[in-house]
Amino acid sequence: MSLISLNLPKSDGNFQDHQTLGNLVGHSDTLVISQAARAFHGLTVVVTPDTRTALRLEKALPQFAGLPVQLFPDWETLPYDNFSPHQDIISARLSALFELQQGRQQILLLPINTLMQKVCPPNYLANNVLLIKKGDRFSIQKLRLQLENAGYRAVEQVLEYGEYAVRGSILDLFPMGAEEPFRLDFFDDEIDSIRTFDVDNQRTKTEIAEINLLPAHEFPTDSNGIEHFRAKFREKFGEIRREPEHIYQQVSKGILNAGIEYWQPLFFEEMASLFDYFPAQTLFITFADIQQKAEQFQQDTQNRYESRRVDPMRPLLPPSDLWFAIDEVNRWLKGYPRLTITSEKIRKSAAKMNANVANLPDIAIQSSAKEPFSAFQQFRQKFDGNILFSVESEGRRETLLDLLAPLGVKPKQVGSIDEMMVQASTLVPNDNLQTFLIISPLDQGFVIENANGTSETLAPSINTSGQNLAIICETDLLGEKVQTRREKNRKTVNPDTLIRNLAELKIGQAVVHLENGVGRYGGLNVLDAGGIKAEYLVLHYANDAKLYVPVASLHLISRYIGGADETAPLHKLGSEAWAKTRQRAAEKIRDVAAELLDVYAKRESQTGFAFAYDKAEFDQFSATFPFEETDDQKIAINAVISDMCQAKAMDRLVCGDVGFGKTEVAIRATFLAVMNHKQVAILAPTTLLAQQHYENFKDRFANYPVNVEVLSRFKTAKEQKTILQNVAEGKVDILVGTHKLLQDDVAFRDLGLLVIDEEHRFGVRQKEKIKQLRANVDILTLTATPIPRTLNMALNGMRDLSVIVSPPARRLSIKTFVRQSDDVVIREAILREILRGGQVYYLHNDVATIENCAEKLAELVPEARIVIGHGQMRERELERVMSDFYHQRFNLLVCSTIIETGIDVPTANTIIIERADKFGLAQLHQLRGRVGRSHHQAYAYMLTPHPKTLTKDAEQRLEAMSTIDNLGAGFALATHDLEIRGAGELLGSEQSGQIESIGFSLYMDLLENAVKALQEGREPSLDEITQHQAEIELRVPALLPDDYLPDVNMRLSFYKRIASSENLQSLNNLKVELIDRFGLLPEATKNLFAITQLRLVAQTLGIKKIDAGIHGGYLEFKPTAQPDPMKFIALIQKQPAVYSFEGAVKFKFRLALEDNRKRLEFVENLLREIVGG
């Protein structure tokens, strides 16, 4: 359906028509591209001046064109960069090239510099895509070799594109271009099944029939490819240097260094252009300014070539080997029908015309004016035609409808422009003005004059009788734009596991053995004792003593947290010192437990409101959440709902990285509160953040009779007064605001829930006010990185804790670099970001010199649009700066730490922090979290003075930042803070000594045990901690063989999880996970599970030890055990030659048990007899 008059370029033999369409103001280009692509039955290639425009169209076109839209992305690196593109980008590029070869009708978007880039020839893909189907006969080793030749990397666990892992008869694989990784299960040499699996929990999902295996790189990396590289390199550069770090020597060994893509032509006889992939039936739509952008790119490329060609270890190929000149691209373009589009008005001719489009006048609402809507009202009165409002979400729709209601404007909602045209076509000319509303990504409006569908070159469409149409976007009226983001499932982390798991344990790190004290981890060793192989954890103690801990006893081991590794005590094996230390700590902890119980008692006695939970209503609301909840998000939501339904005041802390879904947890809690006719207060640390929360809550409650308001500087004094009056009368259900909400003049009629965002950002007085509210209002606190004291209190149960670590879809971890401050590094970091259409934070935390810093950056990077923001600016001015940066009017923000709790800017993906050594770990993490909010690779540069001037603490903090760059690291970083600073903050200096002496994890165990004992009215005993697991010695091999699970850290992690299983269900889940991920269990692993299962049963019976060998064995009971004597008497009477008692606690059995399996089965049956009789 056409709205804008358009002559489609014709293709007639040798003649290729080139039309130009001008005057495409606003975002009317989206409609023109959609119209043209739908009318043209083939491939439509849209060439944009930059990545930013391509990304805008990628978002907007699917709704209007109704066709597949694919972006062929730029590498997102600078020419001749030392960075390689992220695997996700390579995957998207290979996928796009593969799709082009399928010849489907689609729209392909690409920036001009990408069209100029030389690419792999089409036959490379055609010859290297492997179709794998269920039932195919393949040797797993042959497939493994093919994967290696295709450039796939062998790993222990598949997490990213281009990786594979082999475990027995199972092969995991993440092909380029695929949505999910696959698990191939082989039966002999036949593929028995192909299933997708979750990259985070590694569990399988859906069975499928076949997969296309694309190569892992855009160039061959097999031996032939490398040999071709060597020959072409010698031909190109002549004499070869012998240094091992030389690029030639590196590639010869199969090492592909970062930035290898800039030597890609050496892997092929001849490179190709994207035109080699385009079919004859291709329409080009080009933006008018691509010529200027291409010439600028050519100049930049040449400049970088000249400046970087001096490195003798990395001789560079000239730009002509990697890119086509724009003149050559222009010659190729002449061979296709082409439409050039521009927002400028052009002089008309046979091949040039202006679109029937005009700019909207300035109709923005002036909230400070006496008549805020006067400009819009004047436009309505003068405009003769239909009006289509475009908003980005349902919440914005509600905001707009509220604004328009007093004006008597009630637009009809439509799902598409086609639907609007159908409705508009039923009107007679000059009929009353009709208004419509659509939810779409358009954000710059325009007017279409005499909108019709009469163009003969387009598909038949409905005539709209030549009426005018104004498309008005929310930005035209409100001056704001909402950024949206997608999320998907990622992994779940138990907070306890993060601290106590041994998966990240490194050789030499301090660990605590419950019975022997603090030692150093020395690795995993397999020992052969009497012909029985078993794996042991080696611990080093004082005086070079070693302790071999059986893997079945790993429940006794935990990481030492309480201070730095080098200052951790090292105990002496066999001495009384550890027992005394532990006893002394236990006595002190008993007193702490009593204090804690007092806190618990106060919390329990504070009766809160028990919210009623209507599951059907709640599920209906939850279904409007546009993303899939992650597992840990679900756990957090369920925990919050459970808390609220109890008749005591909730006090829960939800910890999760910025943008990871904490707000949705608060929204669900808010829904439960308002459905129970209670009011909700949302407390944010800054005005801009409060405004963003307001938009989010408004959006989610758009379809419910819920009144959401915000108290901020954006409201006039009169509006604020009205809001406060409505709050007092109960007419406002949800009130969002800053610390103003805590002032005495804010009186709620019936407050039921308080949501606090980043509590540690509030001052002492505000915290005291919050403390008073804690007595009778449910409180939900959201935080990205809790300060250590908050974390410790939460872990100790003084506040309940939920952790969310699931990032949004395609969200990549932030690459973090610690660098000595250098102009070249700074310029490249900024350029890399702004050239891909992104924005940069430059943190200079000295307000006195921030202007000088901005001036220096303007000289260093003249391409950047710079703005300054800091805490000493007037608040209104700062808000304007942040709003301008948010709307991308600037692309480099020179700022202070004011951005620490700023608004979400998804297009800001690089942060540069000056003097990073001066910041604390939690603050560095929070600052780094300002970037990486989209699917683009984000970068964080920690700039420092000379490394020799750094303190030990600063070095450790920066090392932690560069090593923990994974998503959702806030919680792990807070525990790192405990290690670096010590855990003395927990409950005062006296307790810090106890934590340092026995470690944080054991301290926690003792504390939990003491609290439980006192709650049950008895004194805590150390025996309950040290003797709660039975010892099992059956002399059978029980381990995870290294040929079954080769990765030591993963093996250690599974040993710990198996040994720490608390019931048969969790043990069985582990067994299923191992089989699913690594294949059928080897015999030794079956034994390991059988022994662990025996231990769990033995514990319930009060058995201290089970010992069995080839001639029999015994069960030894704890003195406190109370087994049923009749069961044993029955066994002795039945087989007196086999069974007998030795003393009061030993039950012996004598018989031949030479076979391992028989021995296990005998003990299993014996325990079954004792349990069941």
UniProtKB/TrEMBL annotation:
GO biological process, alphabetically ordered: regulation of DNA-templated transcription; transcription-coupled nucleotide-excision repair, DNA damage recognition
Protein's job: Couples transcription and DNA repair by recognizing RNA polymerase (RNAP) stalled at DNA lesions. Mediates ATP-dependent release of RNAP and its truncated transcript from the DNA, and recruitment of nucleotide excision repair machinery to the damaged site.
Origin: domain of life: Bacteria
Gene assigned in the entry: mfd
Localization per Swiss-Prot or TrEMBL: Cytoplasm
UniProt KW DNA damage keyword: yes
GO cellular component terms attached to this protein's record: cytoplasm
Lineage, broadest ranks: Bacteria, Pseudomonadati, Pseudomonadota, Gammaproteobacteria, Pasteurellales
HAMAP family: TRCF (MF_00969)
DNA damage listed as a keyword: yes
Database matches in PROSITE patterns: HELICASE_ATP_BIND_1, HELICASE_CTER
Record-stated family: In the N-terminal section; belongs to the UvrB family.
Record-level Gene Ontology MF annotations: ATP binding; damaged DNA binding; DNA helicase activity; hydrolase activity
EC identifiers of the protein: 3.6.4.-
Enzyme type, top EC level: hydrolase
Gene source species: Mannheimia haemolytica
Domain (Helicase C-terminal): residue spans on this chain: 825-979
Cross-referenced Pfam families: CarD_TRCF_RID (PF02559), DEAD (PF00270), Helicase_C (PF00271), MFD_D3 (PF21132), TRCF (PF03461), UvrB_inter (PF17757)
SUPFAM superfamilies: CarD-like (SSF141259), P-loop containing nucleoside triphosphate hydrolases (SSF52540), TRCF domain-like (SSF143517)
Coiled-coil positions: none
Keywords: ATP-binding, Cytoplasm, DNA damage, DNA repair, DNA-binding, Helicase, Hydrolase, Nucleotide-binding
Stretches assigned to the Helicase ATP-binding domain: 643-804
Record's protein name: Transcription-repair-coupling factor
